[in-house]
Amino acid sequence: MTASLLRAATAAVRALRRRPIEATTALVVAGLVAGPRWPALVPVLALGAVAAGGVLRGLGPVLAVAVLAGATVADARLAHLDRSALGPSTGHAAVGEATLLEPLRRQAFGRRAAVVS
User: Fold this and answer.
1) Domain for residue 63, yes or no?
2) Which string of DSSP letters, residue by residue, matches 24-73?
């Protein structure tokens, strides 16, 4: 069992080193996903990327930076979304004149909604 896992891991590392662009893209996506949801996983991914890519070849640090960049972009994106200009008025009734762009739609519990301009 251990020998087969070792062979599988070796094959995975070889495949990663043969395709550095795909590996970098995959680790950017891993950083995007892990950054805001599981921040403790980001350093583990970065260290694993260094180990798998190899320090001497230069691929390992590039892969680690890809993970960290993905996590940083995800955190910045969510911080920007949290500072919406709409603020507390989101989801509340608005008073004013509007042009209906489509007929009213009935929703659950008797509410009505429409697209307006």
Assistant:
1) yes
2) HHHHHHHHHHHHHH-TTHHHHHHHHHHHHH-TTTSHHHHHHHHHHHHHHH
Alpha carbon separation from 50 to 38, 58, 69, 93, 101 (Å, rounded): 19, 9, 14, 52, 54
Q: How far apart are CA 19 and CA 16, in angstroms?
A: 5
Q: What pTM was estimated for this model as a whole?
A: 0.65
pLDDT, tens only, 39-63 = 898 999 898 888 888 877 788 899 9
Q: Is residue 108 part of a domain?
A: no
d(CA 117, CA 97): 9
Structural domain tally of the chain? 1
